[in-house]
Recover the amino acids of this structure.
């Protein structure tokens, strides 16, 4: 029978492997791909992309009812929530210290340390700790989280241009991983990685957050920046070779499409299915653009995306 | 694909005889590549060279039209692997399958729903592209009845699906004027299907799942019968296999100019999905990764809307971001005492601010100024988002009529405009919002009281 010779690309670079957890906790390694997502016919894909479930340190307000109902009572307690998330199949817990936001309670280092201790004790998965995304407060609570989790190799986010020194230094001191977040721009992403490396953070201790646009809300920008970053990595640019993390759940669930059943056109269809597909489609599309970790919110999405990753890994 | 001057030169006689009016063959070739003169001006071009030049000039993935004069779609003719390299040109056709063994009411219902479905997004009407009618009954009369029932309900491009040339022939007698896609020629029936495609002037799908070599061989046989309007079905199922196969096909066409597989691809994501959500997610993968036509097994607005949105995202030209129509956008259900924010018509700026306002709990009026699609800082730097423009936007759209206060929130990045704006809009209180969209919720909580 006739054979068709499929063109293979000869990539010279590959994604860094980054380990989270270990040391008594479960370990998850992400990255290591030597080709574009899931193209096993061309290069090695040693690790599957990981699914993280987002846990807030305060009871969420304004969550759509189907999302809140899926979790029920545990929303009031981050430790119980994290435990439940582990049961629902999370590979990683992503704890958002939202209460540290000046508008959400303005809690400080002491509370952050307590919450991190509690969540670490409640389950044995690797942990990501995210600040309230206000640079000064991120510094305070992430440094506290870093100390509380010393040696447990958690990931700390976000490092931005404004505060990468403090968070980067904490990661070096306590053996953690830094999440470098930049606003959907390839050169800024690369620049921040360089700054972190100059500071002394090892490239194997950095994840990139390219900033997630949800389906219909800038997804195509994130998609193409991620493809460009991965292309740069595979063609040998070490400063774009960090695994990528996407905050899919947070972005999907705050859009009108995931929340509203009233005052929306009938052509949007039934809310429950629409909202789930919104999160799933955002996640699966970004996985195909190179996401190594997707942070999700709804347990059903977690189940569906884990099944999708299983199938994509073959 | 446009050839370079050097590539064209290779096909010329290289005698520099000047009969074309150019001093050398190379000079002539350069002019041809710039489309300044037609290749036929050289009288000594051999017929073989002419044919080779024509073949080399053909697009690597053929553009195929499905449908008649009234409603048709064009698929194929893509030139890049990644949308950032240029753009994806011809949006994946999204169709819904109907089986002829279904009850007549069900057939009519789905056909009517799909044909009537359209949803608005950023000022564009998004719709599904057609119906695929499958001869599941294996009975020609049932198939014809289904075709007729659907045609009476839906004026959409069709795919006719049957492996039986007799049933296909009967259906085409009723539907050929709509130039449906004939699905499919296989190694067992290809000569008869090719005959039908030629007779009715319809595009032909070629299905061969045994391997790309076998598929290429079958396509070449069908080319030999005189058919060029082809859609290929490599029979790739599931997430991993379809991603690998469709990527390989796109690469073969673009990187190897491999003619026998340089055609748009048709997929059926429902065949390997257990749930509607899984089908939607796999269909989304096919939209982003290289399918020309995706046939769905389910239709509901709650799956069609996300999928159409995804297609819009992926097929938006990265060099020409979508511009919002400048106007007043209502976020939530704003009242006369709700906040008024002004921003640019760059879609990403709009979406970030609209998203934040949406989740802030403050229904708002969002005034979108015409900055020709530039973001806040770029537009400001280019003089397209200055005090004068903002004042004009406020007045032109007459926002004052809808509100009971006179407070205007401007983006924090153009805080410098405040003074000038106060002169331009003397009745207004100008408030400087946060520099980042994500902080607008907290800002309103602290600063807003109407
Ligand atoms: S007429 Fe043809 S062969 Fe003669 S110079 Fe022109 S291109 Fe060359």
């Amino acid at each position: 029978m006739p054979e068709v010779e499929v063109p293979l690309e000869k990539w010279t670079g590959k994604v860094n492997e980054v380990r989270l957890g270990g040391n008594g906790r479960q370990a998850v390694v992400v990255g290591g791909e030597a080709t574009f997502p899931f193209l096993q016919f061309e290069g090695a894909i040693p690790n599957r992309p990981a699914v993280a479930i987002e846990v807030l340190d305060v009871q969420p307000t304004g969550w759509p009812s189907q999302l809140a109902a899926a979790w029920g009572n545990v929303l009031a307690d981050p430790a119980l929530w994290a435990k439940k998330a582990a049961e629902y199949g999370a590979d990683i817990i992503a704890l958002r210290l939202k209460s540290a936001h000046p508008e959400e309670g303005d809690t400080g280092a002491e509370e952050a340390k307590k919450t991190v201790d509690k969540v670490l004790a409640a389950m044995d998965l690797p942990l990501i700790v995210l600040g309230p995304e206000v640079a000064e407060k991120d510094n305070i609570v992430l440094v506290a989280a870093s100390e509380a989790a010393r040696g447990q190799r958690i990931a700390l986010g976000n490092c931005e241009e404004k505060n990468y020194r403090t968070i980067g230094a904490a990661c070096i001191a306590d053996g953690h991983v830094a999440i470098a977040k930049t606003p959907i721009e390839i050169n800024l992403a690369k620049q921040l990685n360089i700054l972190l490396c100059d500071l002394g953070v090892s490239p194997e201790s950095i994840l990139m957050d390219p900033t997630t646009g949800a389906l219909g809300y800038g997804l195509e920008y994130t998609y193409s920046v991620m493809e460009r970053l991965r292309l740069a990595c595979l063609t040998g640019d070490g400063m774009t070779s960090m695994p990528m993390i996407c905050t899919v759940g947070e972005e999907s669930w705050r859009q009108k499409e995931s929340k509203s059943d009233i005052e929306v056109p009938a052509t949007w269809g039934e809310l429950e299915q629409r909202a789930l597909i919104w999160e799933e489609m955002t996640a699966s599309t970004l996985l195909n653009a190179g996401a190594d970790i997707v942070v999700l919110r709804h347990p059903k999405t977690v189940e569906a995306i884990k099944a999708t990753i299983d199938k994509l890994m073959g | 694909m446009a050839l370079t001057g050097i590539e064209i030169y290779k096909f010329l006689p290289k005698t520099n005889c000047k009969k074309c009016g150019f001093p050398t063959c190379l000079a002539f070739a350069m002019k041809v590549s710039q489309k300044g003169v037609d290749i036929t001006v050289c009288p000594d071009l051999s017929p073989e060279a002419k044919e080779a030049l024509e073949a080399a000039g053909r697009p690597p993935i053929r553009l195929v039209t499905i449908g008649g004069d009234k409603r048709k779609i064009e698929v194929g003719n893509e030139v890049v692997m990644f949308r950032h390299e240029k753009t994806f040109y011809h949006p994946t056709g999204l169709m819904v399958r109907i089986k002829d063994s279904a009850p007549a009411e069900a057939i009519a219902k789905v056909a009517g729903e799909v044909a009537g479905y359209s949803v608005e997004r950023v000022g564009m009407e998004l719709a599904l592209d057609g119906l695929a009618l499958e001869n599941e009954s294996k009975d020609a009369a049932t198939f014809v009845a289904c075709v007729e029932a659907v045609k009476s309900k839906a004026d959409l491009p069709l795919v006719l699906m049957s492996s039986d040339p007799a049933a296909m022939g009967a259906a085409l007698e009723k539907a050929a004027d709509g130039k449906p896609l004939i699905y499919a020629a296989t190694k067992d029936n290809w000569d008869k299907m090719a005959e039908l495609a030629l007779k009715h002037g319809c595009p032909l799908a070629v299905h061969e799942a045994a391997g790309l070599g076998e598929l290429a061989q079958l396509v070449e046989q069908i080319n030999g019968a005189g058919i060029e309007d082809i859609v290929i079905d490599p029979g790739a199922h599931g997430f991993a296999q379809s991603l690998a196969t469709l990527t390989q096909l796109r690469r073969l066409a673009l990187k190897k100019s491999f003619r026998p597989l340089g055609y748009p691809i048709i997929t059926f994501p429902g065949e390997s999905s257990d749930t509607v959500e899984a089908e939607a997610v796999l269909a989304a993968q096919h939209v982003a990764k290289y399918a020309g036509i995706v046939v769905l097994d389910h239709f509901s607005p709650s799956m069609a809307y996300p999928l159409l949105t995804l297609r819009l995202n992926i097929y938006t030209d990265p060099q020409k971001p979508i511009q919002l129509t400048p106007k007043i956008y209502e976020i939530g259900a704003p009242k006369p005492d709700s906040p008024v924010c002004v921003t640019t018509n760059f879609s990403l700026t709009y979406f970030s601010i609209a998203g934040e306002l949406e989740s802030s709990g403050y229904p708002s009026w969002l005034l979108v100024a015409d900055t020709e699609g530039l973001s806040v800082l770029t537009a400001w730097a280019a003089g397209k988002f200055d005090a004068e423009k903002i004042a004009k936007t406020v007045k032109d759209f007459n926002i004052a009529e809808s509100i009971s206060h006179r407070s205007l929130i401007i983006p924090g990045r153009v805080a410098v405009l405040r003074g000038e704006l106060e002169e331009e809009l003397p009745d207004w209180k100008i408030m400087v919002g946060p520099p980042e969209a994500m902080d607008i919720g907290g800002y309103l909580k602290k600063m807003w009281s109407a």
Observations:
- Chain B touches chain A through 68 residues (CB under 8 Å).
- The domain at 5-56 of chain B is CATH 1.10.15.40 (3-methyladenine DNA Glycosylase II; Chain A, domain 3).
